[in-house]
Amino acid sequence: MTLCATFSLVTGIVWAVSDSADGPPVTAARAGDAAGGGDAPPQQAPHTPLARSRPVKIAIPAIFIEAPVTGLDLDNKGRLGAPPLSTPKVVGWFRNGPSPGEAGTSLIVGHRDTRTGPAIFLNLNSLHRGDTVKVSRADRATAIFTVDEVKKYAKDKFPDNKVYGTTNRPELRLMTCGGSFDKRHGYSANVVVFAHLTSLKKRTA
C-alpha cells in the first residue's frame, strides 16, 4: 500500500495520509487568498483560549463538510496515523496535542481520497481566507475558527516550524495530501489550512 504523503512535526511525529491510486492533483488556494491580498477579508481578532475538551464533530460550510472526529495517536515509529481507510468521511485529531480552541496549535487530518473514491478533505484546498471552520466539542461548546491562509508544501520542503510552531493564540491546522500522484511514491505534497479561534458558541439545551 503506497502512502500519499508523510511529514514530520517538530515533536518528531510523521503523519501518513491516504493511498489513492488516481484522482486529479490538489492545488492550493488562489495566491491572493493565501497571502491575504486581493479582496480577502480583514483578519478577525482572536478569541481567548478555551479549556481542554475533545472535539466530536467538524463542520466547514464553504465546502459542505460535516464529519465526526476520532482521536489519533502515534505508532511505535513516532508516526501519526490517519483515520481508517474504511471510514474516509471521518477526520482525525492528534489527541496528545492541544484540543481545538485550547492555547496552542491543534491538528486535524483527513484523507483526500482512497482507492475507492473521494474522501472527506477532497476539496480542502478550495478554502479561502475568511472562511470558517466549526469544531463541536465534548463540553457542548462550538469553537469557531477563521481561515488565515491555505498553502501547499512539497513533502521534502515541509516547514515544520511554520505549521506546528508555538503560537500566542489558539490555532487550528487542517491537513491532507496534495500535489501530483504516482503509484510508487504517492502524493508529492501536503495541503495545510491555517486558522485561528475567533468566536465561541455554547449549547444550553
Radius of gyration from the alpha-carbon trace, in angstroms:
16 Å
Proportion in helices: under 10%
Q: How many strands, what sense, and barrel or not for the largest sheet?
A: 8 strands, mixed, barrel
Task: Give the total of domains.
Answer: 1
Structural class: mainly beta
Structure, described:
It is a single chain. This protein is mainly β and 205 residues long. It has a single domain (6-20, 54-202), classed as Sortase (Sortase, Chain: A). The chain contains two helices and 13 strands. The protein has an eight-stranded mixed beta barrel. Strands 1-2-5 form a three-stranded mixed beta sheet, with no helix packed on it. The chain has a two-stranded antiparallel ribbon with strand order 8-9. A hairpin with a 5-residue loop joins strand 1 and strand 2 (14-16). The protein is globular. The N and C termini lie far apart (46 Å).
Sum this structure up briefly:
With 205 residues, the chain is mainly beta. The chain has helices at 31-35, 160-164; strands at 6-8, 14-16, 55-60, 65-72, 79-80, 91-94, 104-109, 113-114, 117-118, 132-137, 141-154, 170-182, 186-202.
List the helices and strands and how they pair.
Layout: E1 6-8, E2 14-16, H1 31-35, E3 55-60, E4 65-72, E5 79-80, E6 91-94, E7 104-109, E8 113-114, E9 117-118, E10 132-137, E11 141-154, H2 160-164, E12 170-182, E13 186-202
Parallel strand pairs: 2-5, 4-6, 7-12
Antiparallel strand pairs: 1-2, 3-4, 3-10, 6-7, 8-9, 10-11, 11-13, 12-13
Key attributes of the depicted protein:
single chain, 205 residues, mainly beta, Sortase, Chain: A, eight-stranded mixed beta barrel, three-stranded mixed beta sheet, 13 strands, 5% helix
